[in-house]
Amino acid sequence: MGQDQTKQQIEKGLHLYQSNQTEKALRVWMRVLEKSADPAGRFRVLGCLITAHAEMGRYKDMLKFAVVQIDTARELEDPDFLTESYLNLARSNEKLCEFQKTISYCKTCLNMQGTTVSLQLNGQVSLSMGNAFLGLSIFQKALECFEKALRYAHNNDDKMLECRVCCSLGNFYTQIKDYEKALFFPCKAAELVNDYGKGWSLKYRAMSQYHMAVAYRKLGRLADAMDCCEESMKIALQHGDRPLQALCLLCFADIHRSRRDVQTAFPRYDSSMSIMTEIGNRLGLIQVLLGVTKCWMIQKELDKALESIEKAQELAEGLGNKLGLLKLHCLCERIYRTKEQQQELRDHVVKFHECVEEMELYCGMCGESIGEKNNQLQALPCSHFFHLKCLQNNGTRGCPNCRRLSVKPGYV
């Protein structure tokens, strides 16, 4: 298959894919991969296969094609192709919750000396790295990366990237419980879709609606949460987007749990868990198990709650997800307090505070914890964040956290 024919077949596959004929598109692209002698064409078709498998939640296949793409990039001896292929390798590992590998491949991308094309990819690299740091609950570095990605998006007038970063920032602020910002950023993403997204994939609209649903649910606006989640789920079903379907099912379950309708929540958690297991989203599984645990606690089935916690803890330790561990210790504390098991209660109180210290989840001004309840937060340019009211009341000549870190311990 020559260069022109390769190009035609790739375009044919794209047309089929955009018409929701995904399996036909995959067959066309696989044929190109088998028969084309054009390395640049093979590189491009591998990019199409990587994107398609990402959206379907076939992350192991995504990773497999990303590895092949790196070999093709080396064959082409082009730094731009190599940067793009390492980005795809980073994104594949991010989807499989291999966060340390993601960060390592992202750093490889940023160290490459390519042309302006590579520089334009740096925003996507920063976004992927931010998502990985967030998965590891390293909040300051996650925020640094998201803000860097946002600067790249603004400098390159890349509205799609800006939309994706806003959704990640929504997720970031949901986790540290500043729910006003958790809603603001996906609303901003939805505005970008409305203003610029006429030719974009509907996944951007679905993504912003899902993150809005999560924020509305946290704010107690359950009817708004349900409306946004239903819209997101509708698009996810139309496009066969399994990862988003799993997240919407989790959100539906959480909404029903917030209404104390445990019997409706359980089957939705089960459906979400099934898809999360199938696609390999272990971070999502931790969220499902946290929801299931809370349902058992509502029903006062404390031993069943502890069983769910044990499964979630194994996943969180495996991923290095410190926030998940903190939430689990908090739930254990409540359970053992109710069961009046003092030794277990003390153990989990100690572990909870160790997690808070490790993640620096406290305000460097008032010393109170961050992420325990809904609070307005403000980040300084160094990406350390504080209670907004503390910054307003006390003012600051630089960051107190950075000042503490710069003081070297004396020798005794």
From TrEMBL:
InterPro entries: Postsynaptic (IPR001237), Postsynaptic_CS (IPR018293), RAPsyn (IPR052480), Rapsyn_myristoylation/link_N (IPR019568), TPR-like_helical_dom_sf (IPR011990), TPR_rpt (IPR019734), Znf_RING (IPR001841), Znf_RING/FYVE/PHD (IPR013083)
Gene3D superfamilies noted in UniProt: Tetratricopeptide repeat domain, Zinc/RING finger domain, C3HC4 (zinc finger)
Positions of the RING-type domain: 363-403
GO terms for biological process, alphabetical: positive regulation of neuromuscular synaptic transmission; synaptic transmission, cholinergic
Residue ranges that the Swiss-Prot or TrEMBL entry lists as coiled coil: none
GO terms under cellular component: cytoplasm; cytoskeleton; neuromuscular junction; postsynaptic membrane
Keyword annotations: Cell membrane, Cytoplasm, Cytoskeleton, Lipoprotein, Membrane, Metal-binding, Myristate, Phosphoprotein, Postsynaptic cell membrane, Repeat, Synapse, TPR repeat, Zinc, Zinc-finger
CDD domains noted in UniProt: RING-H2_Rapsyn
Topology within the bilayer: Peripheral membrane protein
Molecular function as annotated in GO: acetylcholine receptor binding; protein-membrane adaptor activity; zinc ion binding
TPR repeats: 123-156
Subcellular location field: Cytoplasm, Cytoskeleton; Postsynaptic cell membrane
Stated role: Postsynaptic protein required for clustering of nicotinic acetylcholine receptors (nAChRs) at the neuromuscular junction. It may link the receptor to the underlying postsynaptic cytoskeleton, possibly by direct association with actin or spectrin.
Family to which this protein belongs: Belongs to the RAPsyn family.
Official protein name in the record: 43 kDa receptor-associated protein of the synapse
Organism: Cinclus mexicanus
The encoding gene: Rapsn
